[in-house]
């Protein structure tokens, strides 16, 4: 685990939280204590210039490169009057350098395993395993590989009675 990632996970510490926030600021990162961060976060290039909105949820195994911004599309509106509720980045998503995720209303979801290309500006939700690029971002492909989470099962598959 990198120093920056360790600091991110310790930003809610009761006694050291403020000091940790200041240390992250030295790296050019703003990660509010209210942002929810799942396990396995990877931050490349020390996350220089990365800013997360307090109403952000990052799932497990999310990868952030430098310069990523997650926030509101209406910063001129007072927070309590904003129609934005939350940005959810699901498990295994990759947000490349300079990517921007801006939510105007409701909940914007970056689907599990989605890749958001460098300097892309995402303003709407994505499905799982999609690749988005451009400004404004648009779907340019589907992700190949083993990132897809295995479907949850209640147990081993039932035997086919006709096979016996």
Question: What report would you give on this structure?
Answer:
It is built from two helices and 14 strands, in the order H-H-E-E-E-E-E-E-E-E-E-E-E-E-E-E. With 164 residues, it is mostly beta strands. Strand 13 and strand 14 (138-142) form a beta hairpin.
The amount of helix comes to 10-25%
Which strand order spans the largest sheet, edge to edge or round the barrel? 2-5-8-11-13-14
Sequence of secondary-structure elements:
HHEEEEEEEEEEEEEE
What would the average pLDDT be, to the nearest integer?
A: 87
Largest sheet: 6 strands, mixed
Q: Helix- and strand-based class? A: mainly beta
The end-to-end span amounts to 51 Å
Low-confidence stretches: 150-164
The portion of residues forming beta strands comes to 25-35%
Query: Which value, in Å, is the CA radius of gyration?
Result: 18 Å
Number of helices: 2
Oligomer: single chain
Morphology? globular
| Total beta strand runs | 14
């Amino acid at each position: 685990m990198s120093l920056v990632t360790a600091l991110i996970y310790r930003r809610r510490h009761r006694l050291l939280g403020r000091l940790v926030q200041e240390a992250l600021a030295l790296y050019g990162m703003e990660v509010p204590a209210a942002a929810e961060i799942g396990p396995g976060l990877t931050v490349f290039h020390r996350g220089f210039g990365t800013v997360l909105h307090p109403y952000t949820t990052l799932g497990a195994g999310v990868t952030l490169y430098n310069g990523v911004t997650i926030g509101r599309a209406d910063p001129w509106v007072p927070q309590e009057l904003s129609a934005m509720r939350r940005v959810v980045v699901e498990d295994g998503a990759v947000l490349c350098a300079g990517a921007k995720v801006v939510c105007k209303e409701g909940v914007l979801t970056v689907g599990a395993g989605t890749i958001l290309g460098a300097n892309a500006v995402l303003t709407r939700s994505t499905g799982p395993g999609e690749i988005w690029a451009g400004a404004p971002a648009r779907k340019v492909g589907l992700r190949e590989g083993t990132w897809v989470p295995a479907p949850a099962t209640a147990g081993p598959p039932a035997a086919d009675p006709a096979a016996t």
